[in-house]
Write a structure and sequence with these properties.
CATH superfamily of the largest domain: P-loop containing nucleotide triphosphate hydrolases
Distance between the termini: 23 Å
Strand content: 5-15%
Number of helices: 14
Shape: globular
Radius of gyration: 22 Å
Number of domains: 2
Strand order of the largest sheet: 2-7-6-3-5-4
CATH topology of the largest domain: Rossmann fold
Helix content: 40-55%
CATH class of the largest domain: Alpha Beta
Number of strands: 8
Length: about 325
């Protein structure tokens, strides 16, 4: 209709051409694999102990949030926070003793297998916590895997030197999220998420360190998780419901924007845990969130089709 043509012309006056279309750029594909590991007996003891501890204590919500996230990263990140909590308690001391007795970390075995495959291929290992980084680098050192670390506390000169060494000398970079911001890592095409943020946007930012303009090869993403942890549930719904890890860059944000809940995704995850009195409740809560994500993705795709019909593929706000 004429009115639609007029609207299209008016809108194009305040739109800019999409960068990718303007330079006829097509990013390589990205392929994701999630490796879910059974917890070792020691890990199972730690997780069950933490669950009982958190359910039985009147801890504030923020403390519970951090302890749960750290437990998903590594037992060693969890231990550091447990040691900082005020007061005493046999439950807490029992968890710490279980961590001290821990002989093996299930994700550590998987990480070594990935590093040993194509040993000269560059790989970035992302972690959230410095204690987890200490564990990962210690494991790599113990098994003779060349690596360099990259974290936010380093000076600019140290960061530059680390990137040069990664590019020219060693096959593995172990990085925190803050460490990798703004760095050119397109000479590498493999990401290993040793742990995962609860916020999908931060996961996307990790992937975007490698899957960006200038990348010439397909990007491979490996997500590590221990079964029946919160991270396992999060990965499951992001992967199986909306196929997040193989989406086009920038699509996850509008999908999250179509969720009916106004809370941040991390807050929704926390709410599910707080409202679950059993593993069955927890799984049901994440199943409901998965269905909500699927609905949000469908709404986003409908909006995308309407936008493209009105403006074509070459424009964005």
């Amino acid at each position: 209709p004429a009115s639609r043509d007029k609207l299209r012309d008016l809108l194009r006056d305040v739109m800019i051409r999409n960068t990718r279309s303007a330079i006829d750029l097509k990013l390589p594909k990205r392929f994701a694999t999630t490796l879910r590991e059974e917890p070792t007996e020691g890990e199972r003891e730690i997780y069950l102990g933490l669950k009982d501890y958190l359910r039985g204590k009147s801890l504030n919500r923020l403390t519970v949030y951090h302890l749960l996230k750290e437990a998903g990263s590594s037992p060693f990140a969890l231990k550091q926070s447990l040691l900082r909590l005020p007061g005493e308690g046999s439950d807490r001391e029992g968890i710490i003793r279980s961590i001290d007795r821990l002989q093996e970390v299930s994700k550590g075995r998987t990480l070594l297998d990935l590093v040993r495959k194509n040993p000269q291929e560059k790989k970035v290992i992302f972690v959230q916590y410095l204690k987890t980084m200490d564990y990962v680098t210690g494991l790599l050192r113990q098994h003779g895997a060349g690596h360099v670390t990259f974290k936010g506390a380093m000076t600019l000169e140290e960061k530059d030197a680390a990137i040069r060494r990664f590019r020219d000398e060693v096959p593995v970079l172990v990085s925190t999220e803050s460490g990798g911001e703004g760095r050119n890592l397109q000479f590498c095409n493999t990401i290993i998420n040793f742990d995962l943020p609860w916020n999908p946007m931060r996961i996307e930012q990790r992937i975007g360190r490698l899957h960006r303009i200038g990348q010439t090869r397909d990007v491979f993403i490996f997500n590590l998780a221990v079964r029946e942890t919160l991270e396992d549930y999060i990965i499951e719904i992001l992967d199986s419901k909306i196929n997040m890890f193989e989406m086009v860059i920038g699509e996850i944000e509008p999908i999250l924007g179509h969720l009916e809940k106004e809370e941040e995704f991390e807050e929704i995850v926390m709410e599910i845990w707080m409202n679950s009195s059993s593993d069955v409740d927890l799984r049901k809560g994440f199943e409901s969130l998965g269905e909500a994500l699927l609905k949000a993705k469908k709404e986003y795709l409908k909006t995308k089709v309407l936008d493209e019909d009105l403006l074509g593929r070459d424009y964005e706000i």
